[in-house]
Design brief:
P1 Nuclease, four-stranded antiparallel β-sheet
């Protein structure tokens, strides 16, 4: 009951529009409420495809592994089929991240799963969970026996939607939906998806999942190292024909993956035997997938982008007050443009560290706690516009509780341990003053707010609020 009352009091405080915490919340300790953070996060229980367990780590996502290798194949093209601007767009950090996010979200968001997301067991099968990720080229249907939605219909839909956004000069949405379209295309490269063989096939229950897990462990053995992408898979620029043909090629391998002997080994628990027998088909499937995906991505550029010039990546670098690139793990003061000596710092309150501006000191020094930018993905260690990054205080009152984070229960920014769902921030230049930056997390601007006690606490503004401007100053 105490937990419930504390939560109700805090929600009431937030609804009132003030950051002053009422006595009833102070009494129970806001720390208790904050410890509930993310404990009830929904667990993703889903059917396995080519795996997609992390948006930016290819060793945890076969979808990403295929797409990244496809782009590398494009980069090695020798006959000028692939244009330079295609690679420039794909390697622009902001667009690259959005592409990878779309590739990932296609498995996790209901809008991309007409049967909904959740468990795939009998209930999931009845509802048709992830049915839009399957397409049998012989029947033209998904595993529910429906002609729509399928990997073909959805891949075509988002391929074209991405193109429409590009024509409207909304490149963020364009590359996000290109990632979604590429996810459906790579679904069609998976033999089980091209044969409507699901994780609840009773002849080998959960074999789909076991197969996918195994593929993730061996995929690097079959990385294509040449520049031979398939750019003429079919004599058409119709994405539907491309998806159909790649599914047709993938389905050819289903008998080499799910024949009776292999399923018998699986059902007996003879993992080494079934893994050995599927390996040749895995090799052929993955190598074909990489080459065909290179062609599918190029097809989109040929259809919608043409010779449109990409922005110079140098112009997207986030820079400090000296004009130098922001580097991972280097220390910086994050200061508001209107208070250049009041950097971010922290203060304990009811068993938690909360972020705020340092107190005003009448001198010319910058005060506060230095912050480090930490990436949760592979990159060159340089921060670019629109890239997701963790913000880490260089010290705190509690060991390891150093990462800026927020809870759905309050708009206050606090310090937390690093977890898979710790808040990530994006930095965008102020269009009216490129030496200043706006900070966002999940679309919410990072602002500060007085509480009447000369404390300026760091809070999340509304998505419609005007963002505060910040500068980044080297701390060493």
């Amino acid at each position: 009951m105490k937990k419930k009352l504390c939560t109700m009091a805090l929600v009431t405080a937030i609804a009132s529009g003030t950051v002053v915490i009422p006595a009833e919340v102070q009494a129970c300790g806001i720390g208790e409420v904050m410890k509930q953070e993310n404990q009830e996060q929904q667990e993703h229980k889903r059917v396995k495809r080519w795996s997609a367990e992390h948006p930016h780590h290819s060793n945890e996502s076969t979808h990403l592994w295929i797409a990244q290798n496809a782009i590398q194949i494009m980069s090695r093209n020798q006959d000028k089929t692939v244009q330079e601007n295609e690679l420039q767009f794909l390697n622009t950090p902001e667009y690259k991240e959005l592409f990878e996010r779309g590739l990932y979200d296609a498995d996790y968001l209901d809008e991309f799963n007409d049967g909904g997301t959740g468990t795939i067991g009998i209930d999931g099968l009845i509802r048709g969970g992830w049915k839009s990720h399957f397409y049998d080229p012989d029947t033209g249907k998904n595993y529910k026996g429906e002609e729509e939605p399928t990997a073909l219909s959805q891949g075509d839909k988002y391929f074209k939607l991405a193109g429409e956004y590009f024509k409207k000069d909304d490149r963020k949405q364009a590359f996000y939906y290109l990632g979604v379209a590429t996810h459906y295309f790579t679904d069609a490269t998976q033999p089980m998806h091209a044969a409507n063989f699901t994780a609840v096939d009773m002849s080998a229950l959960k074999f789909h999942s076991a197969f996918e897990n195994y593929v993730t462990t061996i995929q690097d053995q079959y990385k294509v190292s040449d520049g031979e992408g398939v750019y003429n898979l079919v004599n058409s620029n119709d994405p539907k024909q491309w998806i159909h043909e790649t599914a047709r090629l993938a389905k050819v391998e289903i008998g080499n993956i799910t024949n009776d002997e292999i399923k018998s080994h699986y059902n007996k628990g003879d993992n080494a035997l079934w893994q050995q027998e599927v390996m040749p088909a895995v090799q052929r499937s993955l190598q074909t997938a990489q080459r065909n995906t290179a062609g599918f991505i190029h097809l989109w550029f040929k259809t919608y982008v043409g010779k449109t010039a990409a922005e110079d990546i140098e112009n997207t670098i986030v820079r400090d007050s000296k004009g130098e690139a922001i580097q991972e793990n280097k220390k910086y003061f994050v200061v508001p443009s209107e208070f250049l000596n009041r950097g971010l710092t922290f203060e304990v309150y009811a068993s938690n560290d909360y972020a705020l501006l340092s107190n005003h000191v009448d001198d010319n020094k910058v005060h506060g706690t230095p912050v480090q930018f930490v990436f949760d993905k592979d990159n060159n260690g340089i921060l670019h516009r629109g890239e997701s990054v963790l913000l880490k205080m260089t010290q705190s009152n509690y060991d390891n509780y150093v990462f800026l984070n927020y809870s759905n229960m309050t708009n206050w920014v606090h310090l937390a341990k690093r977890k898979t769902n710790t808040a990530q921030f994006k930095v965008y230049p102020n269009p009216n003053n490129p030496t200043e930056y706006f900070l966002y997390t999940d679309g919410y601007p990072i602002n500060y707010q007085e509480n009447g006690k000369e404390k300026s606490w760091i809070v999340l503004g509304k998505k419609t609020d005007k963002p505060k401007a910040w500068k980044l100053i080297q701390a060493e």
